[in-house]
Amino acid sequence: MLSPSAPRARTTPTLQRSRSVLRAYLSLTKTRIIEQLLVVTVPAMFLAERRAGNGSLPSVWLLAATLLGGAVAAASAHALNCVADADIDAKMKRTQSRPLARDQVPRGHALIFGLVLGALSAVWLGLTTNWLAAALAVLAIAFYVLVYTLLLKRRTAQNIVWGGAAGCMPVVIGWAAVTGTVGWPALVMFGVIFFWTPPHFWALAMRYREDYAAAGVPMLPVVATPEQVSRRIVAYSWAMALWSLLLLPVTSWVYGVVAVLGGGWFVLMAHRLHSSVRAGEETRPMRLFHLSNTYLCGLFVAVAADAALGLPALGWPF
Q1: Where do the DSSP E strands lie in 121-247?
Q2: Domain containing 118: what range?
Q3: Distance CA 165, CA 108 (A)
Q4: What pLDDT does residue 2 have?
Q5: Cα(185)–Cα(64) distance, integer angstroms
Q6: Residue 268 belongs to a domain with what CATH number?
Q7: Dihedral of alpha carbons 305, 307, 311, 314, sign
Q8: DSSP label at residue 246
Q9: What distance in Å separates the CA atoms of residue 61 and residue 67, rounded to the nearest whole number?
Q10: In a domain, 15, yes or no
Q11: Tens digits of per-residue pLDDT, 275-314?
């Protein structure tokens, strides 16, 4: 043990700079969003294994390999998104702290970083799971960067509706990693996230409307009235809740209870937001935004629990 008078080790300027650069590159990957993507991947893999009739859960190795590959693929997409959106991020208060907006990372270096991550994720998934999962990961990256970020985001208020499809891909990738195919339950889970994305993101955009307006991004709350936005939030919330019930034939009462109660709760909160907007009252869209995260997490935890418990599926009603 060092004596009280012993000199403490000092962090050298070089080490400080290295840590700062490392944090900047890590920030490019938007790790919080990656966590959410991985939350939906594991339940999809659990259900895929159950549907395959193996009577067990996916191996720890397959889970780890898929999650690592999926995380690196998502990191690639986010880094490339930061490269394309550097000018927008610099204008928005919510994103001004991002590395490229603050010139913490050279734009060319960030581009190479994102491309290398994408290549690594594809090779890793191909070698450790299968090449269908790898191809789907590459498709997700390309769709997010080329279609959403470069084509839709700055041109149409429907940007997040169609561009959000990239965020639905983890469930399909997870299913493919287990089965080597894309089954219809994977497409149902894809649809749940697809319908979930607009209410989730529009609620956030209502809160940060001025930010998007300043950056010239035509998010729906920028180009439409609050009532039009809240009405569409209600419509997509209903579509999401009803679509989630399509998974009932391959799940048990556990998922059924969560889907019905959770979906009903979400729809109720969407209607409350719409009512507040129509009445001209103060609205708190971030409540719905945070609720949306809780709902999606709870729904997919129910999928995982359902598959892990091995309870009898409800089956088709006809």
Answers
A1: none
A2: 24-309
A3: 27
A4: 45
A5: 22
A6: 1.10.600
A7: positive
A8: G
A9: 10
A10: no
A11: 999 988 888 899 999 999 999 999 999 999 998 888 777 7
